[in-house]
């Protein structure tokens, strides 16, 4: 779960950077695969 939380934090940072509204954590987890989350973590 920690991996998803860190990826979500990165996602929220990027949403703020681009001025768009972020989805909530539950929707984030439901809509991403483990591979996608790992990719987000690599980009950090």
TrEMBL record:
Which superkingdom, per the lineage?
Bacteria
Q: What's this protein's name? A: Uncharacterized protein
**What's the source species for this entry?**
Anoxybacillus pushchinoensis
* High-level lineage: Bacteria, Bacillati, Bacillota, Bacilli, Bacillales
